[in-house]
Amino acid sequence: xxxxxxxxxxxGPNSRKIAEKDSALLMQSFARWYPxxxxxxxxxxVEDVDGNVYLDFNSGIGVTNxxxxxxxxxxxIKEQAERLLHYSLTDFLYEEPVKLAEKxxxxxxxxxxxxxxxxxxxxxxxxxxxKTARGHFRGTRPYIIAFAGSFHGRTYGSLSLTSSxxxxxxxxxxxxxxxxxxxxxxxxxxxxxxxxxxxxxxxxDFIEEWMLKKYVPPEEVAAFxxxxxxxxxxxxxxxxxxxKRLRELADKYGILLVVDEVQSGFGRTGKWFAIExxxxxxxxxxxxxxxxxxxxxxxxxxxxxxxxxxxxxHASTFGGNPVSCAAALATIEVIEEEKLLDNATRVGEYAMKRLRELxxxxxxxxxxxxxxxxxxxxxxxxxxxxxxxxLQKTLEIAFKKxxxxxxxxxxxxxxxxxLIITQQEMETGLRILEESLREALKEV
Length: 444
Hints:
Elements: H1 13-25, E1 38-42, E2 45-48, E3 53-56, H2 59-62, H3 71-83, H4 95-107, E4 114-119, H5 122-136, E5 143-148, H6 156-161, E6 179-183, H7 202-215, E7 221-226, H8 242-253, E8 256-260, E9 284-287, E10 298-303, H9 322-337, H10 340-361, E11 365-371, E12 374-379, H11 388-401, E13 403-404, E14 406-408, E15 412-415, H12 423-443
């Protein structure tokens, strides 16, 4: 396709009917950006129930990295579904999870023995990482240090680490004890009001000089849990030296480094995992989303000596489901065969260049940041403060023009299309986004 096709102004009559039933029948504990009612999708295109076709800058929220319904992934799912749907990996064995584990061990950073534990989602992967980190130290290190502004999930353990929006925690306390938060290295809006690089990475020094020396005994900290690029918090990219300094601090005190690659993994940033941009090898990596192109699957991959929970201490009935594992194996093969890491880098660099050119024209674009096809465009008001109204209006207009794109943080446009997107398709989306932003500025 050359571009979106809008037959009836969204949301159309069929979409409105389904949205009404959705509101009446489903608990509305999630907030939708706009009333898209998806019917089918292929590649980078999504069709709604009214026949409108949209260009997808969301990838099902960072999931369909190989594009929607990639033929090779669909074929793998069909073939596996005809052989075996389920028999519970926690009580018995089958081949598919072993084959996938071999692949995961080979593509994750670190040339040391590793083991894998399967889950069904990102939040379950974080839960497994928390239990593995604490359990490895056999109760001697009960504390976890996470980072303010990060998102790790919404179940009680993962929610205790999450701190990107107050609504995620409101009325739900008390949460998991023993979790502390350090400021995330958000250089555009530094919480310490300092400037990089003159700050000398005070955000890392703060952890040691204040947290570990004032109120968190370092010998009782099991892990740092951190996103290599803060996703939900605003697509925030840390300074290049941040993770090396954090790794040094972890090693100094015997603390594990757990990296949440749920949104940034499987080629999203132009490398298999975003942490590779920073030259650091984590002890545990938590993954999900893009691992299986849309089927529910997650995992943690960690140093073999750390992945030592005793039998019976942790399990998952559906974790490592053979159909999901088959989809994941096909997903990895597609990324390799179609050189999607290279494409994400190339098209992502093009998009960043275009967006920075646009930033020079529109003063309401405060910051453009990202790696590969994980790009954030922070919108601001005249005084430089976040501008959530401008964000929402821009996204709504883009939706009506045939572009699916959402936000992150307080007022950041989140650009995360399938890794198969071409430069021409990216240009089409950026043109719609620019038109939408300019129109939104007239209304807000």
